[in-house]
Amino acid sequence: MKGLVNYHIEEDEENYKIIIDADGIKGNNITKYSLEEKEIELHDPRDGRAELKFSKSGLQFVTYPTAVKKFDSVIDESTKEVYEQELAELLKSNLENVAEVVVFDHTIRSDFSSSRPPVYHVHGDYTATSAAQRARDALGDKAEEWLGDGVHFGIVNVWRPIEYPVERSPLGFVDPSTVSPEDWHTISLIYPDRVGMAPGVVFREAHRWLVLDKMDPSMVWIFGQYDSHGLSSVPHSAVEIVGTKEDARPRKSIESRTLVRYRE
Q1: Phi and psi of 193, rounded to 5°?
Q2: 103: helix, coil or strand?
């Protein structure tokens, strides 16, 4: 199985930025960086070639059905209560030494969504600076307990297809064992009132891509977006599968971002 993804290219560091709402105009986003499309070979991790355990690689897939029957574009409070309890139980049963889980964001994506489509470039999500800020935003006065010297915390994403198995635009990951620190570049997100940061990834021949073929809603990906004790973030992207049927249904998915504090 082959797919197409977009990588960042090696270029001047000054170009690794995007200006959001430039000149005060909503939606006027100016991208300075360049991307290149690459055709990649895709491997289903169920073949056993990649050892995927979160404590070692920051990436794992498990079967974990949800009791939620339907996810609306805006998740109501009763659905959120059920699903967030499931997420906490999922992470505590699959990650090691979890002391506390705080769910802080849910995003529902679809190929046909104008506001939340799949993201088709290879990226991470947080740097150390932006992860700390996210913790402060989510935890308020409690944040300093998590950000103290020696405290082990991380940002962990749980990704699930919804409604039916994935027929197009699956989420793919670069096998963490094939990623080097030199593959990452920091992208500056320049807003009118602040500057954010997110990691982008450049192409390497060594990268080995993983996709769960026809992943169904009973399964989830668990992947690290940041870890204060150095477990690497996992590069990922939506993948355009070569030869996707024209009548394939749009991908629908929910991704949930969580703060996880670990016992020492």
Answers
A1: -120, 0
A2: strand
| CA atoms of 168 and 1, how far apart (whole Å) | 13
Q: Any alpha helices (H) in the chain, and if so which ranges?
A: 54-57, 77-94, 128-139, 143-147
- In DSSP terms, 8 is beta-bridged to 35, 202
Query: What span, in angstroms and rounded, lies between the C-alpha atoms of 186 and 196?
Result: 10
Residue 220: name the closest of 195, 255, 185, 180 by CA. 255
Do 259 and 140 meet the contact criterion of CB atoms below 8 Å apart?
Answer: no
- On whether the CB atoms of residues 204 and 183 are closer than 8 A, the answer is yes
Give the containing element (helix H, strand E) for 257: strand 252-262
Per the CB < 8 A criterion, the answer to whether 160 and 253 are in contact is yes
Over the stretch 124-154, which tens digit does the pLDDT of each residue have? 999 999 999 999 999 999 999 999 999 999 9
Among 8, 34, 9, 37, residue whose Cα is nearest residue 242: 37
